[in-house]
């Protein structure tokens, strides 16, 4: 019945289409972030992330407008708002990382930063897999729960990489006396950690939706 009703809604009120479109922007930004951390076309990938973040913001606004306009939503209005905003926070944090990279004109990155970039891609792809499954929560609740747990594991791995990276930075720059390089490195590590934290927030939102609707 709900599926039939959704088909009757105006196109802009089809929440899952908008969620999927946003998730696609997030994955694209994650892939660009990983590429730039690998030293590939750094400025081009920075610009791409900025563009994708702006497009994701537009989708977020569309979702929030649809929540206010719709008589019936696929699940709780507050959950819809929290889910899309948590997804948007993830890509916003990638944008913030780009600002730091550009500000300090960074073109080379530590190996553990590169590993964290790959973790960002993994988390983004997991979230993109989860989004369409929310259309049939009852049928997909086990996989949704697994995805949330996998994202949490990815975030836990990134915490370890963050700590290892900071220790390596300290050892390198303690002897060289290059305090600026150390500070820039710690800032980038911190922002990458926050990107993964935001993905864990998305996973927690998905877990909450599953619990409330199964």
UniProtKB/TrEMBL annotation:
Q: Which residue ranges does UniProt annotate as crossing the membrane?
A: none
Q: Which domain of life is it from?
A: Bacteria
Query: One Pfam annotation, family name?
Result: PhoU_div
InterPro entries associated with the record: PhoU-like_sf, Put_Phosphate_transp_reg, UPF0111_domain
Q: Its family?
A: Belongs to the UPF0111 family.
Protein name, as recorded: DUF47 domain-containing protein
């Amino acid at each position: 019945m709900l599926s039939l009703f959704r088909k009757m809604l105006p196109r802009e009120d089809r929440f899952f289409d908008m969620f999927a479109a946003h998730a696609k922007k997030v994955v694209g930004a994650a892939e660009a972030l990983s590429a730039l951390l690998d030293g590939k076309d750094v400025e081009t990938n920075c610009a791409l992330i900025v563009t994708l973040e702006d497009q994701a913001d537009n989708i977020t606004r569309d979702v929030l407008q649809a929540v206010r306009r719709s008589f019936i939503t696929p699940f709780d209005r507050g959950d819809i708002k929290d889910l899309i905003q948590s997804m948007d926070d993830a890509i916003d944090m990638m944008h913030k990382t780009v600002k730091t990279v550009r500000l300090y004109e960074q073109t080379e990155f530590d190996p553990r930063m590169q590993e964290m970039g790959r973790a960002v891609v993994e988390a983004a792809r997991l979230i993109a897999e989860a989004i369409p499954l929310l259309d049939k929560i009852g049928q997909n609740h086990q996989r949704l729960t697994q995805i949330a747990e996998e994202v949490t594991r990815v975030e836990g791995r990134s915490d370890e990489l963050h700590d290892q990276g900071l220790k390596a930075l300290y050892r390198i720059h303690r002897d060289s006396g290059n305090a600026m390089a150390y500070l820039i490195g710690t800032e980038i590590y911190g922002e990458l950690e926050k990107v993964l934290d935001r993905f864990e927030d998305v996973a927690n939102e998905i877990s909450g939706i599953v619990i409330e609707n199964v």
